[in-house]
Amino acid sequence: MFRAVLISFRRVTIAASLLFLLICGAEVAVRIYEAVTNTTICPLSDGNCSDPSKLTIPSWSIHQELKPSATARVECRDSKSEVSFQTNSRGLRGPEPVVPKPSNTYRIVVLGDETIYAPEMPDASHFCTRLQTQLQQQSKVQIEVVNAGIPGHCPLTELVHFKQRLMGLQPDLVLLHFDWSDVADDRQIRRLVRCDESGIPATCPNAKLATAKKKPPPQEVWRRQFRLLDWALNAISTEWKLQVARQRAVSHDTDTNSYAWLREDHPEKNREFWLAVQPIIEVARLCRSSNCQFVLMTSPKPWQVSSKCSRGPGVRLQAGVTRDACYTNQAPLKVLAGFAKHHNVPFIDGSSVMTSGSDAEENFLQHAPRWSAVGHEHLAELVGKFLIEKIPGPWIGPYGSQTDIQWTSGQSLGGKLK
User: Fold this and answer.
1) Angle at 115 between CA 112 and CA 121, to 5 degrees
2) I need a labelling partner for 14 at 20 to 30 A (CA). Which of 158, 231, 321, 329 fits?
3) DSSP letter at 163?
4) Is 52-214+258-408 in CATH node 1.20.120.450?
5) How far is CA 396 from each of CA 107, 137, 138, rounded to the nearest angstrom?
6) How far apart are CA 128 and CA 393, in angstroms?
């Protein structure tokens, strides 16, 4: 009897020791991987190619930003491949921009959120790369398109980002992409903004940093010490959020739906929408004051195109949209176009190419609510043609008769901003 107990105890001890060594080995492997590659292993949510929020860090000035001078690797379920890209010292995706800007360079800065950042899209297929290639074919000078998209940003934080960090890049043109998720993002961030004496937003510190000096709860201390524990808790948190989203979808809880307002026949009466777009006017003013062109553009979310777009597991639920939702109401788009016209801001409507064709769903990923490679290509063609036809610049070729003289003369937005 005693011998049997001893054998059982020995087996349990060996199994526990092996399990402990396995966990320790996995922890060491994760730490070595992160140290060597300068990346962080982040759990991917059930519905996304990658969770853009996992690729950001809190910021004292612009709410959140990308980790500077880092390499990121994300898995794209649509292409079944891993995408690798780098951030520069300014925390922007792409190569390091030269400062001061070379005299023979025409620099375009693209502002936006995770739609512009597009973590699941390789550099070669990205909107910014395609736009740069297209414009370069019609220019005698070097064209440079800077991707300034930051996950979770909206015009409010994009204004602060532009004032504090991007004006120093001396852009010749700023292209701001208004995403229809910006209304909900603005609602969450606005309470954190601090304005200057004239009431213009100056900084937007992240709430996490404000409580950083407080003693962290025990679970946070353990998460910082053990990377595997952090990974597991993140995975559990992601699954819990998906379960909550599923329950809301089943119960048709539209009070938490960030896109329910898109059904309104008179979105011009929606206060949250107007608050979200107001910073666009200030960005345009700053551009005009520095002899920089400014263009506003937008594109539809997948659920504004078809109920079949971006229907990968959990994608719509995580965005707070029911699986079969389709917001075909054109009133919000018309109001945004009217807003741009009222303030003499050139406006590009991306829905003209994203909703056309026999298979508009091809313009979007199935496992993330963002543009596919086809969508990036179509929008780059639309924007490139618009800039060549409508905006003074170093263009040559069939679309317009703009000249280098017109570009270097420092012309800015036509008309007076109201």
Assistant:
1) 125
2) 231
3) I
4) no
5) 17, 8, 5
6) 17
* Alpha-carbon span 51 to 207, nearest angstrom: 20
Q: Is there a contact between 368 and 120 (Cβ–Cβ < 8 Å)?
A: yes
C-alpha to C-alpha distance for 229 and 202, rounded to whole angstroms:
37
- Let me know if 74 is exposed, middle or buried by CB neighbors in 10 A (0-12, 13-18, 19+): buried
Residue with tokens 């001890």: 13
Burial of 192 (0-12, 13-18, 19+ CB in 10 A): middle
> In whole angstroms, what is the distance from residue 115 CA to residue 379 CA?
12
From the CB of residue 71, how many other CB atoms can be counted at a distance below 10 Å? 12
d(C-alpha 194, C-alpha 212), whole Å:
19
What's the pLDDT score for residue 403?
45
Judged by DSSP in three states, 368 sits in coil
Could you give the C-alpha distances from 326 to 30, 180, 263, 310, 322, in angstroms and in order? Answer: 42, 14, 10, 11, 9
In terms of C-beta density within 10 A (0-12 exposed, 13-18 middle, 19 or more buried), how is residue 113 classed? buried
Looking at the DSSP bridge assignments, the partners of residue 194 are: 203
DSSP string computed for 300-344: --GGGT-TTTT-STTHHHHTT--TT------HHHHHHHHHHHHTT
Task: Report CA torsion sign: 261, 267, 273, 275.
Answer: negative
CA distance 158 to 228: 34
- Rounded Cα distance between 399 and 394, Å, is 12
- Residues 139-196 have pLDDT tens digits of 999 999 999 999 999 999 999 999 999 999 999 999 999 999 999 999 999 999 999 8
pLDDT digits 0-9 by tens, 38-66: 555 443 333 334 456 567 899 999 999 99
Give φ, ψ of 376 to 5 degrees. -60, -45
For residues 86 and 69, give the distance between their C-alpha atoms in angstroms, rounded to a whole number. 7
Tokens 């201390």 correspond to: 221
Count of C-beta atoms within a 10 Å radius of residue 178: 26
Q: Given the structure tokens 């400062």, which residue do they identify?
A: 99
Amino acid at site 228: L
- List the domain boundaries for the chain: 52-214+258-408
